[in-house]
Amino acid sequence: MTAVAAVAHAGTAPEISPKSRSLPSWPVAGILLLYPLWWALGLGVLIFPMMAAPMVYLLLRRRSAGRPVRLPPGFVWWVIFLAAVVISIAALGVDPPGTVPERAGERLVAVVYKLSMYASLTVLLVYAGNLTDAELSRRRLVRLLGGMFVLTVLGGLLGMVAGNFEFTSPVEWLLPSGVRNKGFVRSLVHPYAAQIMDLVGGEKPRPAAPWGYTNTWGNNFCLLAPWLVVAAWASHRTGRRALAVLCLAVSVVPAVASLNRGLWIGVGLLLVYVAVRHVMAGRLWILALLPLLGAALTVALTATPLGTTVQARLDNGKSNGVRSFLVDKALDGFTGSPVIGYGGTRNTLGGRNSIAVGESAGCERCGNFTVGGNGQLWQLLYAHGAAGTVGYLGFFGYGLWRFRRDRTPIGIAGSAALVSSFSAMLWYNSLVTPLAFMVLAYALLWRNWIEGNTD
Q: What are the coiled-coil residue ranges (predicted)?
C-alpha cells in the first residue's frame, strides 16, 4: 500500500503555489507612493521602464500558473497605435521641407526612448487592470492617485517660493559629463522646482516639480484633481475631507502662478463635465455647488493678486504665434506622409519669421522649434500619421464610450480624466506621466466594469 501511494503521489501534478497566482501591488504602489524619492534620485520617469520588467515577469508567472491575463476592452486600438509607432520608424531618415536635416541614426535615441515608454505604460495598464481588490483595492489606488495630486500642489508651491531650487541627483552624478550635460538627458535626471520664463514682463518661476516641465505639471494637475475628490468622498473622516478641501483651495495659487492657460481651460472643462454627469445621474445638488465654487474663485481673484496675474497672462499671448506656426508645420508635414508620419518630431529651420532666426548661445529659445512638441495631437499626426492617431484616439475614445454608464465616483472621475486629456492634447504632450495617469484611470474604469460596480 505504501508503494502504491508513493507511485500515485509521484504521478500527481505538483500543487501551484497561491503566490504564483497572485500579483503583488508593490510595482504600481511603489511607483506612486515613492515618486518623490525617484524624482530626487534622478530616476523620475525612468522608474516606469524599470518597474515594467518585474511587472512582465509577474504577469507571465501568473499565466504559467493557470490564471489568464486579461487585456483591456478596446485593446486592439492600442495595438494599432503601437504598430504605427514601430512602422513609422521606417520614415525616420526623411527630412520634411523646412526642417533641420539629420541622419536617421541621430534621431533614433529619442524614438527608442518614446517607444520604450509607450511599451512600459502598456505593461502598467495591463498589470493595474489585472490586479484584484484583494491585491490592490480600487479604493487604495484612488487614494494613491489623490496623493499624487497633493504632491503636485506641494511641488507647485515649491516652484513658487523657491523657483531657482535645483540639485544634482545621484543618477546625474554617475553619468559622464558629456552625457549628463545634454539637454535631453538633463531633463530626465536633473531635479528642479520651476521653469523660469518671461511671459508677462520679467522672468518668473512657473511650477514644474516633480514633473519636469510646467506644461506637464498643468496636465497632471487636471488628470489627478478628480481622484483627490473621490478619495475624500469615500472617506468617512471629517478631518480628511477638510484637508482635501483645503488642498483644493490652496491649489488655486500655484495653478494661477503657473500662467498655464491650458490648465485653466482644463479645470473649467472638468467642472462642466462632472456637473453634466451628476445631473444626468439625477444628482441635482451639483447645480447648487457650482455657483458657490464660482463665487469663491471670483473672490479669490479679486481680493488677491491672483486676478492681476490672470489678466496679465491673458494680455500677453507670446506663445500664440509659435503655437500657430507649429500647428501649421505639423499639418503640412501630415499631408506629406499621411499614413505613417515621420517616426518622430523634427526641428524647424530657424523661427516662424525667417529661417535665419535660429537657436544660438545668446538666444537659446530662438527658432529651431520642435514640430510635434506643442501637443499630443500634433505629434501623433506628424510622427505617426493617420494610423497612429486613429489607434491612440480610438483606444481612449472607446474607453469613454464603453464605460459611459459608470455613474460611480470612480466612473465619473476616470472618464473626466480621459475627457480632460482630449482637451490637453491640443497643447500638451502626454509622455510620460500624463499618459501613465491616463492608463491608470482606464484601468480603474475597466476594473469597475469587471466587478459590475457602475451605479
A: none
